[in-house]
Amino acid sequence: MQIALDHTIVPSRHQIASAKLLGELLGVPWEEAGIGPFSPVYVNDGLTLDFIETAEAYPVYHFCFRVSQEDFDTILGRIKAAGIPYRSSVRGPMDMQINTDYGGNLIYWNEPDGHQWEMLTVSYARQPA
């Protein structure tokens, strides 16, 4: 049996702005209004991040996107062009560096609501074969 994550809800203070920013950075489709009260970002054919606006307290979420090297370079270019600070470690200063410790490239950045995005070319989170 194969299980796939279909969608998840991302709480936000400014759902349309957050969905738009992520969609544009990743170069994927997004909508101001999808089904129900959500602003969806269509990450790929099988995963949607549904942003929802809330005034309630919520934790900072972490999402990691595995991409090809070509897509990494393109997305990083968009991040730089947007003036978004990024870092090479999950915690620490915005050093504007790329981490290459795991056999690929990876970076972290935060969006305005505080959520942490990670982008990498080689996963370090796979179960050993």
UniProtKB/TrEMBL annotation:
Coiled-coil annotated residue ranges, if any: none
UniProt cross-references to InterPro entries, sorted A to Z: Glyas_Bleomycin-R_OHBP_Dase, VOC_core
Domain of life: Bacteria
Domain VOC as annotated: residue spans: 4-122
Identification of the protein by name: VOC family protein
